[in-house]
Amino acid sequence: MKTKVAVIGASGYTGGELIRLLLFHDDVEVIKATSRTNQGKKISDVHQNFQGYTELQFTNEPVEDIASDVDLIFFALPHSKSMDKVPKAIGKVKIIDLSSDYRLKNPDVYNEFYTKHCSPELINYFEYGLPEINRNIIKKSENVANPGCFPTGSLIALAPLAQNIVIDITFM
Asked: Domains of the chain (ranges plus CATH)?
């Protein structure tokens, strides 16, 4: 049976690339893709490289309704936008957040470098999603905070040093 997936924020670059990857994954069925500004349009009208690959249309359904229809929700929203929507889905469905909203374990650090976090009580429900380092933890997790490109490049380079206790990266 295929995993039923929704992509919240599917009309942006990250959402489009994610859908591209998911459409060709044998074990996944993308059944929901949201966009506030493109509601009702076919995904291929916005991401023209999907012509002939999907007839799926963007919706603007509430996250809590989507959570009851899928096995997994990807949040492909800009930074500080997922934290408004994640509380409506957490505990109902598996979540992978591609923004920075749940990456940092310390809400004070998040507040300092981003903006005030509006759901800091949920931060500890997320595992840091760098598979090169946390693969086994991610497999067991209900909620994953995807790392950004700069942390990924840096941490992959530093991981061998940390594994050999040359440096400490326990802040993750």
From this structure: 3-163 (3.40.50.720)
Neighbours of 73 (CB within 10 A): 28
State how far the Cα of 170 lies from the Cα of 26, in Å rounded to an integer: 36
Q: Give the integer Cα–Cα distance in Å for 145 and 35.
A: 21
Per the CB < 8 A criterion, the answer to whether 15 and 33 are in contact is yes
Residue among 143, 144, 142, 140 at smallest CA distance from 129: 144
Task: Report strand pairing: 28-33 vs 3-8.
Answer: parallel
pLDDT in tens, 48-97: 999 999 999 999 999 999 999 999 999 999 999 999 999 999 999 999 99
Active site (catalytic) residues:
149
- Cβ-based neighbour number of residue 41 at 10 Å: 13
